[in-house]
Every structure is written in C-alpha cells, then in structure tokens.
C-alpha cells in the first residue's frame, strides 16, 4: 500500500505533538510543513529539518504562486493544526482527500476563536475537540471525529489547555488514519444543531472583572482566562490587581451590598462582595496592600 502524502500546516505544542505522531507512522509521509508567517514556530521548524522535510512560511497561502508551490508535492491530504490563516476554495480542493482541521471546540458549538476560554467562562462541564473537513465557512465543515472531556469545578484555562495539547494530537492522528484506511463516515454539523454558535476573539481590555455579576459567573471568568492566559484584572484606586485564582464560598448567603467591596481579609487571601454573595480571592498580584473596605472596580 502506498503512503498517504500529507502537507502540514501548524503552530504550537499541539502541532508538535500531532506531527510527531504522524512522523512515527510508516504509512504516512509528510511532504512539507508550513508554519505561521508572523511568528514562525522554531520548534516545528527544527522538527521538520531534523526529518529532512521542507519547512515553509507564506504571508498569504491562497495566492496562485503558493498554491503552485505546494501542488508540486502531490499531496493526498492537507492538515491544519492551529494555523492562523483562512483557507480558500483553491487550497481546500487541491488534494484528493481535501483539507482537514483540528478545532478545540465541540462543533457546531464553540466555533471561532479562544474557545477554551469561552467554554470555561460559560461554566461548561465539558469541552470538545473536533477534527473536521474545511469548507468555505469558518469551522463549519463535516465532522470526522469528535470527543468530549470533563471540566471539573476547579479546573482553569491552564488545566484544560494541557489536556487539549495532548488530545488534539490524538484526535487529529485518529482522523488521518481513518482517511488513510477509508473508514470515514462524515457527520454534517446541521444534523447536530441547525445553528450552533461562534465565539469572538478576545482582545486586550477584555480581562476586566465586572463585580456586579453573580459569584459563579465571576469565578468562571477568572478561571477561564487564568495563566497562561492574560489573567483577570481589576483596580483598587489607580493600582491594577491581577487575579489568577478565586474560590466560591460554601453556603455563602445572598445579600445586598456594594459589588467589588472588600468585605473580608485573611492572611493571604481576601473576600469581595459580588452581586449576590461573596468570592474569596486566592491568588493575586498587586502593588498595594488590600484592606477591608477597599473597592475593586
């Protein structure tokens, strides 16, 4: 049986893990590796060079010149793992087995950007990883494989990201082997849900805590953008406070107060009034001493 020839587009730890699995399969041949143009992944580049594979970057992968360049490799399949450009029709249809992508979201829900952060912010009890065919929409192609993973109450972005780094690679490799062995039964996303939803990209300034929300929503927000994310922020007077971890208080009563006011102080932690109850701030960084009565805004 001839080898499945793959053109690989990727970036980051999950791309490293997936590429290693593909390289270890004797039935697969990686024809080229394409990294991001603006911030080229040096680890991915070294992996390619070590295995005598051409490493390329391109400002616009949809140009005629680039398509001609990769067409010379006669790939059977193109694979994307955390690549940052949108593939258009001519690239999508270049190879016999088309183009597949691994997305760290439970499609057709959590399409778009920063989906692991959004899953935690929304208080989800699980997150999904999906490998799908790429079409001309954004994360709308037919599903090849999908798996969900549990989110525990105290899991934060770092915890979920570690799982995704490993499991994205596992699912992508599973999808590739299914294609190689002709075992694909694609699932149309509209058969799961007629609409689904998209998540927008998070930007600088989105880290600000709204203390007028309920404790659980603030708790989920803090853990959703915890390290290695940007970390939730608030201010005491003009001093910024970065909050990486908080804790819900068991049996905390609901009462009317001033959201954002410090209402309790311990040796290494403090308690803030929220819209409904209170939240204990466990891990934080600021240049001023937090005192009872201070107001976080």
Would you mind describing this structure in some detail?
With 297 residues, the protein is α/β, with parallel strands linked by helices. It folds into 2 domains: 4-199, Formyl transferase, N-terminal domain (Rossmann fold), CATH 3.40.50; 215-286, Formyl transferase, C-terminal domain (Methionyl-tRNA Fmet Formyltransferase, Chain A, domain 2). It has helices at 12-23, 42-50, 64-71, 89-92, 115-121, 157-180, 215-224, and strands at 4-10, 28-35, 54-57, 77-81, 99-103, 111-112, 126-133, 143-150, 198-199, 232-236, 239-248, 262-265, 270-273, 278-286. Strands 3-2-1-4-5-7-8 form a 7-stranded mixed beta sheet, with helices on one face. A 5-stranded antiparallel beta sheet has the order 10-11-14-13-12. Strand 2 (28-35), helix 2 and strand 3 form a beta-alpha-beta unit. The longest helix is centred in the middle third of the chain and has 24 residues, at 157-180. The radius of gyration is 23 Å and the shape is elongated. The model has no long low-confidence stretch (mean pLDDT 97).
């Amino acid at each position: 049986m001839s080898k499945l020839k793959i053109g690989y587009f990727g970036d980051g730890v999950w791309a490293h893990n997936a590429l290693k699995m593909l390289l270890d399969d004797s039935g697969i041949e990686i024809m080229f590796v394409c990294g991001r143009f603006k911030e080229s992944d040096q680890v991915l580049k070294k992996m390619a060079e070590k295995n005598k594979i051409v490493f390329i970057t391109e400002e616009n992968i949809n140009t005629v010149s680039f398509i001609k360049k990769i067409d010379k490799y006669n790939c059977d399949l193109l694979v994307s793992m955390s690549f940052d450009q949108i593939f258009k029709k001519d690239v999508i249809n270049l190879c016999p087995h088309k183009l597949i992508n691994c997305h760290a979201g439970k499609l057709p829900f959590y399409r778009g950007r920063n989906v692991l952060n959004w899953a935690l912010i929304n208080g989800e009890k699980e997150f999904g990883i999906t490998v799908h065919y790429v079409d001309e929409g954004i994360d709308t192609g037919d599903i090849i494989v999908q798996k969900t993973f549990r989110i525990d109450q105290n899991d934060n972005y770092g915890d979920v990201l570690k799982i995704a780094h490993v499991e994205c690679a596992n699912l992508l490799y599973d999808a590739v082997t299914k294609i190689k062995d002709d075992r694909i039964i694609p699932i149309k996303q509209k058969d799961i849900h007629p609409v689904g939803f998209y998540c927008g990209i998070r930007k600088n300034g989105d880290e600000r805590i709204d203390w007028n929300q309920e404790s659980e929503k603030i708790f989920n927000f803090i853990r959703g953008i915890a390290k290695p994310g940007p970390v939730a922020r608030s201010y005491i007077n003009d001093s910024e406070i970065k909050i990486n971890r908080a804790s819900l208080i068991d049996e905390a009563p609901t009462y009317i107060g001033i959201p954002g006011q410090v209402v309790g102080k311990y040796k290494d932690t403090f308690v803030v009034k929220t819209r409904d109850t209170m939240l204990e701030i466990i891990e934080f960084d600021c240049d001023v001493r937090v005192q009872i009565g201070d107001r976080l805004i």
